[in-house]
Amino acid sequence: MRYTFLALVLCLCGCAGGPTHDYYSPTRTDAKFKGPITMALVDDVRPEKEKCLREGYTLVGSTDYFGKYPEASELRAQAKRSGANHVVYSVRNASKPGEWHFSFGSWGGTGGTGGNNEVHIIFLGRLAPKRGQA
Q1: Is 67 exposed, middle or buried (0-12, 13-18, 19+ CB in 10 A)?
Q2: Are 117 and 61 in contact (CB under 8 A)?
């Protein structure tokens, strides 16, 4: 039972990394923003980043890559690691019409379309307003 639990924990920890972690570029290494982590999927991160900065957010870091769609668990895990409490991301399928891929892994083969996404993620932080302030 103990080994099953340990294997499950290791699997879950491994799943929270991925390209969101592997391609992360910090802007600040001392960020420790508290509060619940919020996320926003947008069409383009640039205008949303500018809007957030005007609203008092601080840029903590970013991730840009081509590959799989980011999972919410990966986004939350990287936000916690980086000290951010707000994540803004965009995903655009960069596959050409009719394009198909096939790959073999340790558990067999997979194939299909949709693994060639252009992903942009911005990690931000903002202090929570003090009681009585909006």
Answers
A1: middle
A2: no
Burial of 110 (0-12, 13-18, 19+ CB in 10 A): exposed
Handedness of CA 94, 69, 52, 84 (dihedral sign): negative
**Maximum alpha-carbon separation in the chain:** 57
Domain spans of the chain, in order of start: 16-97+111-125
pLDDT tens figures, 83-126: 999 999 999 998 766 555 555 544 444 444 457 899 999 999 99
User: What kind and span of H or E run contains 18?
Assistant: helix 18-22
Q: Measured between alpha carbons, how far is 122 from 56 in angstroms, rounded to an integer?
A: 15
pTM of the model: 0.73
